[in-house]
Amino acid sequence: MTFRSEEKFVEIPEVSDDGIRNLTIRRIEELTLQLIKEISSRTFPKLIYKEARKGGRVAELEDSVEQFRTRQTSTRNLSDCALNPLTSFDSSKSLSWLVEDEETPQNAQNPVNKDLESEKDSDTGRSITVDFRRKQSRKNLALLVTLMSHVHKMLINRTSKTRRSLYYELQSERNSARLAKNQRILDNAVNHVASLLECPPWQLGFTATSKGLVCGDLSLTFSKEDLVSCEVAGGVLIPQNVNRVTSARTSARYVLVVEKDAVFQRLIGEECTQYLNCILVTGKGYPDINTRMLVSFLGNKLKLPVYILVDADPFGIEIMCIYRYGSATRSREDRQLAFPGARWIGIHPSEFSALGLSSKPLAAPDKAKIAALKSREYVDETILDQLQLLRTGKVDIEAVAGLSSRFLTTVYLSSKITAENYL
Prior knowledge:
By secondary structure, the protein is of the alpha/beta class.
């Protein structure tokens, strides 16, 4: 049942990021200078960063680049910045900035967030106040300044490094090792710096080591004429610089995103990419930025339908929502990372009976996640209905795959896509 389709080829013009790069450099210098002035005067600085409504700040940053290029270089206050930002300085005993926590269960109790007081504003999002009377808060500031120093150097020299290599660098430096005790603290701090500088994390020069995989009829060309072919047995790591793709070529009919690596490898073993003529992608659980960026690229640039296959449990549904709507804690990046046109192909709680599946009882974290999902503004009636059905129990993809040999590829997926049986 292999369907060949006409080859698609798209070229993406290279866009200089000099404007955003120069603006970010300038903001770092101004932030650092003001911090030095405040601390030298024996007063604690107060940085106030307010998050705009969903999807706003990155667009404003990019739209302001031309204005920045034409402005005369002059000494001015941050309140006169090209973006007219909501960042300001004041003498106080606290530092305040927006905190964006990772939307993954393991980050529910992040050490970075100690000594922080949260305040929710309906118009501007969540702001966090850091009390400088506490030791941890002073460490947080030291880590932010250290990261801004690394960012400034990389932007000036037009270089980059992985977050992992940065972590090891800090561990090797006597005065910096204590600032980030683990990779998770460092990753969260990088997101804080991006919030302060009002730019997406990937504009800072730090690259995250990809964990996602892609397999199928897809060739990607990058700015230095590097070619990545994804027709490799077992799949290839998703490139770290998807935003640098200059052209892409494929004859695939659609993209199939699966939640787990085990299912990804199983589908490769079933020759799913050939049988269904699809591009197979997995984020190995909660997807990283590179995986989400690739899925968005394939949907938006190559105009391929995107289908998502996840476990019929609350965490699987949340992963589907991240691909479709974006992480609730990274609203300013959603415009580039989310693909609202993605279709939830399964597993649906409403299918349990028809497939003769026995569900497993929900654990306490499952029930808590259902409640959290119901409160998300993007969750529509269709998803709410499935969440309600899910209260009776959960089923993983492997239970469906085990119904018969190659059942996922030759029966479940092919029939559902043909019948347009998706949500």
